[in-house]
Each structure stands twice: as C-alpha cells, then as structure tokens.
Write a structure and sequence with these properties.
Strand content: 15-25%
Strand order of the largest sheet: 3-9-8-7-6-4-5
Mean pLDDT: 97
Number of helices: 15
Distance between the termini: 58 Å
Bound molecules: pyridoxal-5'-phosphate
Oligomer: single chain
Shape: globular
Structural class: alpha/beta
Number of strands: 13
Length: about 400
Amino acid sequence: MYTNFQKYLQQELTQIEADGLYKNERIIESAQGAEIMVKGKKCLNFCANNYLGLADNPELIEAAKEGMDMRGFGMASVRFICGCQDLHKKLEAKISEFFGTEDTILYAACFDANGGVFEPLLGQDDAIISDSLNHASIIDGVRLCKAQRFRYANADMADLEKQLQDAQKCRFRLIVTDGVFSMDGNVCPLDKIYELAQKYDAMVMVDESHSAGVVGKTGRGVTERYNLRGKVEILTGTLGKAFGGAMGGFTTGRKEIIDMLRQRSRPYLFSNSMAPGLVAAGIRMFEMMTETNELQDKLHANTDYFIKQMLAAGFDCKPSESAICAVMLYDAPLSQKFAAKMQEEGIFVTGFYYPVVPKGQARIRVQISAAHEKEHLDKCIAAFVKIGKELGVIK
Ligand SMILES: *Cc1c(COP(=O)(O)O)cnc(C)c1O
C-alpha cells in the first residue's frame, strides 16, 4: 500500500518545489531575539512575531522556572478533570483585566481558541460574517460550525453591510475579524464594524493575535485603539507573539460566552491544560504590562522610524498601524530574490507572493520589535537600500 502512496507524495512534493512553494526551515542556534545565530553566523531577525522583544526576557525565564519549581512541569490532564491550578485562574483574571473583559478561558494555542469558539455558540439558524483575509484558524473554526457563512472583502465596510443585510433572516449574527491583518499590517476598522453591528443587531469577535501588546497607546489592542474596551463580545489571542512568544491561547469576553465555552468547547475539553511554567510566566508578563509602557513606546517609535526612513529612501511601504511593514515589490521572483539577498547581508525578512498574497502584490514583510536597537534598524534599512539599488527597485 505505501509504495503507491509514497510515489504520490514524492510527486506532490516535487511539484511544490517546482512551484517555488517548498518551505525550508532556518535552524537557529540561539535564543529568539533581535540578534540570532544561524550556521554559526550572527544575523538580525526581522521576521519574528516577537513584537515586544520578550522571547528571551530574563524576568519571564525566571518566572517560568519559579512556576515549575512551585507547581511542577506538566498538568497531565484537561482542565475539567484535574488540569486547573490556582495559576491558571490567576492568568485568566490577568487577561480579563488587560482587555477590560468579564472572563477568560485558556487554550493550548490561539489556533485552538479559534477552532473551539464557533461550534459551541452558534447553530444552523445563525450567521457568521467573516473578513476574507481572516487567519486560517478562524476559517477552520467556522468550518467546524453549522452556522451559515457570509464573507466580506478585507475591511470593506460596504460589503460587510451588504452581508449583514443578507444575514438579517438569521437568528444570531457574529461578525469576525482579525485585529491586524498579517500581510499588510492594517488594523481592522473596528469603529465602523461596531457601528454596523449595532445597526444590524450583530455581535463582534476580534482575533487580537497580531494586535495585542502592539496596537493602542498601551498595547491593549484594537479595542483600545478605537475606544471600545469591553464593548466587543469576543476577543481571542495568543501568548505566542508579543506576549512572550512561548505558547498558549485564550478567548476573553462576555461571562456567559466564556462559561458556555468551558462546557462545550472541544479543544478545551479534549486537549491538555497549559503547563505551569508557561502559565506562571504569562502572569508575570501581564504584571510587567501594567507596570510600564516602555516596550510599547519603544516598539511604536521603532516602527515609525523604520517606515519613515524606508519611505525617504524611495520604497513603497503600505501604511501600517501595527509592527508589520509591507515593502511592496509587486513581482514574485523579485521578492524572492530580494529576500535571499537580504539574508546574504545577514538580515532575515520574508518575501511573500501568490498565493499567500494576491497576484501582482508580492512584497517583503518586515516585523519590527521593541528588541531592535537603532543600530539594528539602520543596518536593516542600509541593506534594503543597497539591494534595492542593485535590483533597480529604488534609484
Ligand atoms: C498567530 C495567529 C494565530 C495562532 O496563534 P497560536 O497561538 O500560535 O496558535 C491565530 N490567529 C491569528 C490572527 C494569528 O496571527
């Protein structure tokens, strides 16, 4: 049996490679940070979701160690059997406090939070109205749910209104959107989404994975940015990006919604509880967020500086309110070549092209971090300018 299947896989893999879509992993020989070691060489990292630079933070490492000393290595249980320690409840309370929400439920990852949020809440009489650029985990979560599906073009409020009109016949309506879209770095227009939700009697869910810790003056995410703290029914997010970059996901929002998820959400009921070390570090991380706004301030200053310098150098950058900067090249082979040359200069950035972004919209995505010092940013910009000139992108 395997002989035929093996042949089939080999052909598929060869095709993936021929299409230029084969993913090779870069092996890092250091902690995650602004500077990383790859093949014994020091490189600058501009493609991690390590927005606040906490991935190698000594205080968090210490908190994780203490958590393990106090509460052990693993839980060996799902939450409702014997997988809930005082630490888990404390972290959930910290997350609710951070977002100004009523209650929070933890998952192993945000992928699970999104996978387990729709099916327990909505049924075939209901409507989910989803942004066309929403994250894969939202798409998968929606697939697992019997609710009717409506889709609107990215951040297109006229289209959202049309979909809401079509969905008026349904019992309940839920609009779902990413907070920040990871390819362009644009923030969802939550003010307008909220207005339309009021007008057409819909609930709102925002996935804050790329926005939490980043967007808003104090990094409370898009609900802070639009002055809508506590107004949105459901928020999901990850501890795997700005919040330390380890692992863990959550859904936070209205009390009854979270309670229902504790009863019926399958990744919560049938998957292991978060490890004590990660939970303890998560608690410390949220304490740090309330003590100081230094990291957010530095991240915002870094992002402004980087985009300003790149525009001045003649690059075409998408406007961004996040830590994601899309440097537009439009041409797929050019974006691949550009990213490879950046790597030769010791700068890690990612080239994105079709099918990850629309045809003719190829780009280099740069992710800025509070871990970057000015000299790191300047080195990155200098490499962009050098290669941009070499490849005729700028003059
Ligand atoms: C990264 C990401 C996720 C997945 O988060 P994990 O905790 O790594 O599973 C979900 N949604 C969005 C929008 C993301 O960017």
